[in-house]
């Protein structure tokens, strides 16, 4: 664990903006207040709460003498949240020791001696801390001048605290939703827990996939045990029982990636040295081998003359689509090399592209190397890891999915993901060709979509590309459902949770459209970009937010907090070359505030909501951002070396209670590109552990700032790889 930065440290993290305002001489009073507040949390007696509040008020009045001190309310709130962080970290208050743990006279004498020594140290450090406080006061004043619109609370609260206990009762988790859903279907799944172990040496992963190793998709041992592959089970996630602790090798000749936007058109061949796709799809302008580069002309199977022409063709076909305003977040099924999503950025649209890791060699890896969002996934036997009713539009261009089979099982999964009133664009040969198979598929799709109450808005032909597209619209009311003569596809049972999506089997049914005005999905979000900053209409003020305030206020405070952190600390203070940053992941997103703060930068951010955290992913989508559910005790479904920056805010200390830290950081190393940055904000003890493990992987730690019990670390991955291989990694 590292020490605090010296007095001449040029960068003052946002955490110090709050914690430096309390003098060292006040520490005994702080401990007394914490002990009192801990008893309040344990006993929940109103009388004790009032006494603690009065004591906190008296102490704060005595301490509020430093220039730039937060208000009394903010101070008390901060101290309460500090107590919450101690409880989450498993730190026991000495005031709560059990009677049988009484200390001896020798222990008491030792403690008194330690306290006297601490008082002497405090006296020696008083002048030093006073100077820091004066500097901090000037720093806060500068922020107030430069950002007059921000309240004093936002400026002084450098760190949003961890979740309050009360708020956890107000929010479901994806793990809870999905487990309950699987129990209702008589499908149970359990997960073990592992303790933390030290890691002294590293080895290369010894796997068939080599530099392209994705642990949960390349688990050969599990794949051999599959009884069937009829629903593409072999393309789904099958994670190793023990997460890997090996490091993935680099491809021979690997170079630092070409920056965006040049990367959209060409990448280094040796970074993704696969030629099959160029051989199979080169004539369709997917990808070509050009010397030491792989080049992407911007075409696709359905738009060989360029994605932009095709995108504008769809807009002309249905003007109400409104790229970049009405339609902001879309899903591209069977994306290929994701040129469609790559060019959608020019229309201010975010596209989550996905395709399986199959015979179309490394298509998702091509996409990510180009700087385009994508994940490796398949429409198989389980729901995709997204909430219901969050995508404004879903696109399929020759995506090779049998939508009409098995009662429309896979198309009904898209129906779950699509917003009421959202569009489904189907650009495939059955729409415009008259071959026997195409005609049969078209007839089956027509019957299915009618029974699903989808409205066929239009069928348009693109003369340049010689293709056609059918555009459907999902109903925004239940009128059609109620008027159907046949209950096929059937409506889902009332207890079927449409938001349960973590390893939940597919079900061939439809969920009703919300009709209550205050329920999510009952109306369309505001146009982009207004929806980014505005709390969703369905966030109820009577519901407590993640951080203890009414949910809409919590949302707004989180947004201002991350605007401040990103502007003051991340952009100006960590020495990151943001020109080289394109692919970003927030490994523990809450409301998506970190991603929202990066809106004006040339980056995209995938927001990960952990399955054991409050389920806030629908909020993230509602504000025009995107994300995914995941459990960081398992490997993520992406290729190695695909992200420029990973951000973990109070994630790792929580994970340590369920799984080992070393495999998690091995996964971070797998996902991050050489030269990429990892930002960790967490408990000081956890930050110290992380620093040690990263240094053992020869990472360069640029900044470690520990204050009280909180720390921030910024580290850069290097090119180092071990020289020996593990015995077996799968």
UniProtKB/TrEMBL annotation:
Membrane topology value: Single-pass type II membrane protein
InterPro entries in the record: Put_SAM_MeTrfase, SAM-dependent_MTases_sf
Origin superkingdom: Eukaryota
Keywords tagged on the record: Glycoprotein, Membrane, Methyltransferase, Signal-anchor, Transferase, Transmembrane, Transmembrane helix
Disordered: annotated segments: 1-198
GO biological process, one term: methylation
Record protein name field: Methyltransferase
Organism the protein comes from: Linum tenue
